[in-house]
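Note to self: the last two entries modelled the partners one at a time, which told us nothing about the interface. This time every component goes in together.
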Amino acid sequence: MDLISNLGLGFATAGSPTNLLFCLIGVILGTLIGVLPGIGATATIAMLLPITFQLEPVSSLIMLAGIYYGAQYGGSTTAILINMPGESSSAVTAIDGYQLARKGKAGTALAVAALGSFFAGSVATLLVAILAPLLTIVALKFGAAEYFSLMLLGLVAAIALAHGSILKALAMTVLGLLLGVVGTDIYTGTPRFTFGITAYADGLNFVALAVGVFGIAEILRNLEGEQDRTVLTTKLGSLWPSRADLKAMIAPMLRGTLLGSALGILPGGGAILASFASYTVEKRISKTPEEFGKGSIAGVAGPESANNAGAQTSFIPLLTLGIPANPVMALMVGAMIIQGVVPGPNVAAEQPALFWGIIASMWIGNLMLIVLNLPLIGLWVKLLTVPYHVLFPIIMAFCSIGVYSVNSNVYDLYAVAGFGLMGYVLMKLRCEPAPLLLGFVLGPLLEENLRRAMILGRGDPTTFVTRPISATLLGLTVIVLIVMLLPQVSKKRAEVFSEAE
Amino acid sequence: MARPINKTDAAAGGLFIAVGVLFAVQSMGMEIGTALRMGPGYFPLVLSGVMILLGAAIVFTAFSSEDEPVGTLAWRGMMFILPAPIFFGLTVRGLGFVPSIFFTTLIAARAALKMSWLASLILSVAVMIFCTLVFSVGLGLPFRRFGPWLPV
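The predicted structure of the combined assembly is written out below.
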């Protein structure tokens, strides 16, 4: 069996002492930032990106991946104990998880969340292992026109996930694309939009943009109203769920895993959408819908499984097509490129150890997380008492060092301040930053493939619709756009997001 | 006449239009080329056009929706948080990594009203020691710990 020998290679890679160590560091860091509200996985990965350049590509990607799914675990702890999502994807967990905690069943809620996540993570990892090679075969048939259409679909689909106005999200994507164009033109060598600053000739620094827009802008927003958090100090209760609780969680866990895995693969999908969808489904098919919102086990098990499954399967488009499904995956693309790995269908064939090592590390990481989270839960709870005004100067110091260490370029530090201000202003104008980052990463690729496709098609724009795969992708893009702009759908979308707040 | 205007949306749309125009003007200064052989200005010019249209659409919708207040602005935060990385950039070579990261943390810490001077100082010293040990000693990043500006 190919799958078994491939997974064997993966486990051999991920199981080396160095990689185990970095996987552990990744999941610990992930849990840490997941637990602390106010620092997201995107900002943390952006900050740590430069530090990972010293490492082997496999180790650094394993660690970054660990931060991402570790944050999903940590986020649910905060959601259950203080009714505040540590990560946006655990917003749904807060609804029923916090109610369980108030009933003195915090331990049960945490255990259900952790077990559900572990189960979902394991299944989704297996799915990644099965599906990724199949998709890779399809992806190898892709030419420039297909890549262009696929990226367009990814960008448009990502907008479905942004909060608020679709028009603004579209505009943010275009702004990202434009910022991605800054730098030297690849075909003619003409400097573009650099305002004569040679330090920006290689393009704006990706890390600086991500840290500024996600990290610094977020700190500024948190500083608007300084508040202290109140931690639920009641006893955690028994950690082990009763037989009845276990029975109640099995079906929602299975459904959540399935739903999350499917939504995670979609471009623009991922953990947040998955947890919302799962909660809605559980509530609709439950025999006791009145329990939802008052401490239902299913309301914790379903969404927690779904968000973790979605977090794992969102690696599929990244590993097979090189197309990021969400901002964190966009950062992973950045990390791979800097490490000299070109993301795309060739990764599986040319670097099997890297490809399978990352997949295997996800399962190992999930196992580590369950060990970290259940017995050590008390430690994470203590962390919640660290006040924010102590945290953010530390974050600022790390941001500065992180950005500077990418190329030892002081202009990147000035850019960080500029992007921080830009991100904050845009946030105040209710424009979501996620589409901007995706646009920024995909901008140069989109332009390159557009130009290449036009040259290959002898200047005939119908090349995009006469090639069947490209035409299908473009058709899907149009459908997604139309569906989003339909009045009923946009109303429903507004409802879903307002429930989240 | 008292139609509600969503000022936040109007400002956002205006901003997008302005950025679009800025990029469009710059793109026109470059070679546009043809659809077959696109010049450096082609793709950005198309994007700028789309951006201006989207900005205009946002402004248009702003006239038919309720006003949403922008809310409070973090002035103090902006005054201290944004200069911190700039200060680090200006001094990391001259002063060296160790003193530069100390002052950077100190500047950032002043953004919080809740931090006393003493607490900020203690925190900055702790961050300085931690960062030096982790980044400079542990990870071996090529930073000069003390720069040429310091009389040694």
